[in-house]
TrEMBL record:
<dbReference type="GO" id="GO:0005829">
    <property type="term" value="C:cytosol"/>
</dbReference>
<dbReference type="InterPro" id="IPR017736">
    <property type="entry name" value="Glyco_hydro_1_beta-glucosidase"/>
</dbReference>
<keyword id="KW-0378">Hydrolase</keyword>
<feature type="binding site">
    <location>
        <position position="38"/>
    </location>
    <ligand>
        <name>substrate</name>
    </ligand>
</feature>
<dbReference type="GO" id="GO:0008422">
    <property type="term" value="F:beta-glucosidase activity"/>
</dbReference>
<feature type="active site" description="Proton donor">
    <location>
        <position position="184"/>
    </location>
</feature>
<dbReference type="Pfam" id="PF00232">
    <property type="entry name" value="Glyco_hydro_1"/>
</dbReference>
<keyword id="KW-0136">Cellulose degradation</keyword>
<feature type="region of interest" description="Disordered">
    <location>
        <begin position="1"/>
        <end position="24"/>
    </location>
</feature>
<feature type="binding site">
    <location>
        <position position="139"/>
    </location>
    <ligand>
        <name>substrate</name>
    </ligand>
</feature>
<dbReference type="GO" id="GO:0030245">
    <property type="term" value="P:cellulose catabolic process"/>
</dbReference>
<dbReference type="InterPro" id="IPR017853">
    <property type="entry name" value="GH"/>
</dbReference>
<keyword id="KW-0326">Glycosidase</keyword>
<feature type="binding site">
    <location>
        <position position="183"/>
    </location>
    <ligand>
        <name>substrate</name>
    </ligand>
</feature>
<feature type="binding site">
    <location>
        <position position="315"/>
    </location>
    <ligand>
        <name>substrate</name>
    </ligand>
</feature>
<keyword id="KW-0624">Polysaccharide degradation</keyword>
<feature type="active site" description="Nucleophile">
    <location>
        <position position="379"/>
    </location>
</feature>
Amino acid sequence: MTAVDARPATSTGAHPETRTELRFPAGFRWGTATAAYQIEGAATEDGRTPSIWDTFSRTPGKVRNGDTGDIAADHLHRMPDDVKLMQELGVTDYRFSVSWPRVQPTGRGPAVERGLDFYRRLVDELLGAGIRPVATLYHWDLPQELEDAGGWPERDTAHRFAEYAGLVAGALGDRVSTWTTLNEPWCGAFLGYGNGVHAPGRTSDLAALRAAHHFNLAHGGATRVLRDRLPSTAEVSLTLNLHALRPLTDTDADRDAVRRIDAVANRIFLDPVFHGRLPEDLVADTAAVTDWSFVKDGDLEVTSTPIDSLGINYYSPSVVSAGSSDSPSPWAGAEQHVAFTPAEGPRTAMDWPVDANGLYELLTRLRDELPGFPLLVTENGAAYDDYADPEGQVHDPERVAYLDAHLGAVHRAIEEGVDVRGYFLWSLLDNFEWAYGYSKRFGIVHVDFASQRRTVKDSARWYAGVITRGGLER
């Protein structure tokens, strides 16, 4: 492990006498983030049973190179050193997720104390290092036993999730003050059940729409349980990967394509959570798939249980036009009406376009739609083809430029009245990148997966400097 030098050079190349600073508000939360299945490893320890990602990653052809999260970054065994790295970076907050099958292996019944003990130790380490723990209850690792019973398309899964939320809150609620119910339910519903590129790998428009509603119901039910179990000062949140959408041309057809995708990507969550309603155009667009009778009386009252903040995950924008998508598609009810065009400009190793304006557009949209509501950027980062050079250094100037531009977009939004209270860089560590296995590196700390050696990248040193200054150099 390499100590962090928090005195990096600016990425802008400006001469010292011409530099200015973009200062962030006092108390701004400077964080980093991870997810349990992507880093923990120890897949069969302490009573943990398989999640849908354990099963999916063992299904031939689903994950690149047949990779699994069995060992990942071995964080469960190396957690104290990883917390020390965060302390050296100077981060104020750490957003982690709790593994449902490690805590409640069957998705029902009492918690396994050995599983909870890991998170107790993690929280204690974080607090001892002066870092605020931010707990996410679900980052895609549904217990396989619940999937075998029908998974998220079944209503009972939402009730099981609320029960699980209560178990974790009972164990950690005296020390964790910020809670996120779900991470990116769009991915869980539409990539997991719509086009099948994520676990559990099912391909059904109806299953995807049912899952989306039950994610909303699970969020609302868990929020009510958290309110009951946590101190009144606790912050309860939800994290969405809202899509920054742009029409290819300024035509009615392309604008309608944006509307369709906005309904099934964004408003399918925003409207039930913040307004207690389903988007009318979404219901009309998907009429050939479902009559939405799985939404029961009282559900939308539950889904709209008030929360304290909204987390936004952003990586790149999407350019949409009239046309048709490949099948199977994640865009339930819109497949025959929309197409996607690659945006111009530089791209990451994921082949995602680099465009910080999309983050600014999302943040200002939410300012206008949810006036005064607190926001957090809960994930933002980029994968590049990093490697350790012969001197053992990892130079990643593209990532530094990406982060600098996107933090600049956050600062611009704050200057224009958006209540953004924190930024969580994705990710602390190179990890298991879902269907891409270990082929993509998002971390600001390089992990040699054979030896588990951690090497701080240039981007980590750059971020440490930003935190120390409380802003960006220009």
